[in-house]
User: Fold this.
Amino acid sequence: MQLNIALLGGDGIGPEVLAQAVKCLKAIEETFNHQFTFTEAHVGAVAIAKTGKPLPEETIEICKASDAILFGAIGSLEYDNNPNAAIRPEQALFQLRKELGLFANIRPVKVFPDLVENSLLPKKVISGTDFVIYRELSSGIYFGEKSTSEDGTVASDLCKYSEGEISRIAHKAFKAAKKRKNKLTLVDKANVLETSRLWRKVVTEISKSYPEVELECLFVDNAVVKMTMNPSKFDVILTENMFGDIISSLGSVIIGSIGLLPSASIGNENAMFAPIHGSYPQAKGKNIANPVATIFSTVLLLQHFGLHEEARSVASAVNLSLRKGIFTTDILGGSKYGTDYVGDFIAGNIVDADENANINDENIGLGRSTII
Ligand code: IPM
Ligand code: MN
Assistant:
C-alpha cells in the first residue's frame, strides 16, 4: 500500500517519541513491502517561533494532502505559564480538528498483560480492563463562543451541540460496540446540562437501531468512580469533548502510565494519530520519554487502513518490549532504558506476525532479536 504520512512532531518530547514511531513504520514498510512517504511539518510553539503561527498554512496543506497525520505533542512551559497569551500552541490542535473535520477521537484503554503489576491500582482491579473512549472532538465547550467582560472580572465559554454532531459520533461508537462486547456507556451530566440532555435523547433514539447493544447512561462524576473501582466493566464509552478529555487521562492512570495510551482522530476525509499525553517539556532532549503511546498510535493508523497483520506485528513488538522489561522510567518499576533504546528495540522486533512465535530471545538484550 502507498501512504502519504504527514509528520507533526511539535513541541517538547513530541519529536523524540515521533521519531521512534517512524522507525516502526519504516520497519513495517520494509517487512510488508509497502511504500510510505513521510513529510515533516511544523506545529505548536516551534511553529510560532518560526512563523508566528501555531499552524502555518504550509502545515495545513501538507496535512490535507496526506492520507494520515502522525502527531507528537504540543505545548511549552512558556505558554503554560502564560495562559493569557493570545497566540497559543494548542490553537493548532483545535484548528486541525476543526478544519480537517476530525470529530471522532478514539482512545483505547487496554491493560497490557505484562504491566498489570505496574499500575497504582491493585491487579485485581485493573485485570481485564479493555475499553475504548469515543470522545467528540470538534464541538462542545472547546469550540463554543468565548468571552471576557471588559474589566476582566467575568468570563464565559459556551457549550453547544447539535443533533448532527452527536449522532455522527454516536453511530461510530455503536458500530464499535457491535464488534466488541455490545455495551455502550454514555457519559454525561444530564442532571444539570441542557447539552447532556440532548446527548441522552439523541443517543437513546439511535440505540433503537442497535438492539444488540446495551446502552447505559452515567453521570460523569459517577462514571469516574466506577472507572477507577471497576474499569473492566466498561466496553465502549461515548462522551462529549471535555468529559472525554478528562476521563481519558484517568484511563491512562488506570493502565499504569500516561506514556502508553494512543489515540485516533477520525473525520470523513482525514485521520490523525497521536499519543494522548502532552509535550512534557521538562523531559525534552533527555531521552527519557516513553515512546509506546506514539508507537501504539501507529497500530491504530495501520488498522485504519485495514493493515491488520501489520498492526498486530507492531503491537506484538511492543508487548515483547514490555514483557522483557524494556521500558522507560515512567512505568512503575521502570528501568534505565531510554526513548531511543525502546524505539530501536520495538522497531527491531517488527516481523511478519506469523513468524513472531519463532523469536530467539537470546539477542533481545541487544535490542534486536533474531528470527530462527
Ligand atoms: C488532549 C489534550 C488537548 C485537549 C490539549 C492539549 C488542548 O489534552 O488531546 O487530550 O484538551 O484536547
Ligand atoms: Mn487531554
In short: Residues 104 and 266 are 5 Å apart (CA to CA). The radius of gyration is 20 Å. The mean pLDDT is 93. The pocket of 3-isopropylmalic acid (ligand 1) is lined by residues 75, 90, 93, 245, 276, 278 (CB under 6 Å).
